[in-house]
Amino acid sequence: MALKIRLARGGAKKRPFYRIVVAEATSPRDGRFVERVGSYNPMLTSDHAERVVLNVERIKYWLSVGAQPTDRVQLFLSRASLVPATERPANPTKAAPKKKAQERAKAEAAAAAAA
């Protein structure tokens, strides 16, 4: 039984609220779970005390028996110093202009420098 510590969505349309739950990896996102261990309310400001609420003792227990946190939950846990922070990959090259656009920008820069 592979366990995940992940988010389960609740709340109304355009007003999300997430429960942090321990669930089997094969169960649906909002479906059956083993235990609720916290909550996350993205509608609150980032410095608000109730934005992320964690039951630290239970999370430590589930981590000790092999539950794996998802990326977003791992970020919450690393901010609470429960797990080490993992390096989040940045992909700046994907948003960079393509080859023709770069050539066009070079030509425009050369023309502006010559003028």
Which helices and strands appear, and what pairs or packs with what?
Blueprint: E1 3-12, E2 15-24, E3 35-40, E4 52-54, H1 56-64, E5 68-69, H2 71-79, H3 92-95, H4 99-114
Parallel strand pairs: 1-5
Antiparallel strand pairs: 1-2, 2-3, 3-4
Describe this entry's structure for a reader.
The protein has 115 residues and is α+β, with helices and mostly antiparallel strands. The chain contains four helices and five strands. It has helices at residues 56-64, 71-79, 92-95, 99-114, and strands at residues 3-12, 15-24, 35-40, 52-54, 68-69. Strand 1 and strand 2 form a beta hairpin. The radius of gyration is 21 Å and the shape is elongated. It starts with a strand and ends with a helix. The mean pLDDT is 92.
Strand order of the largest sheet: 4-3-2-1-5
How many structural domains?
Answer: 1
> In angstroms, what separates the terminal alpha carbons?
69 Å
Average pLDDT, all residues: 92
- The number of helices is 4
Q: The CATH topology, please? A: S16 Ribosomal Protein, Chain: A
Number of strands: 5
Helical amount:
25-40%
N to C succession of SSEs: EEEEHEHHH
> Under the CATH scheme, which class?
Alpha Beta
The CATH superfamily is identified as: Ribosomal protein S16
Summarize the structure.
The chain is α+β, with helices and mostly antiparallel strands and 115 residues long. 33% of the residues lie in helices and 27% in strands. The protein has helices at residues 56-64, 71-79, 92-95, 99-114; strands spanning 3-12, 15-24, 35-40, 52-54, 68-69.
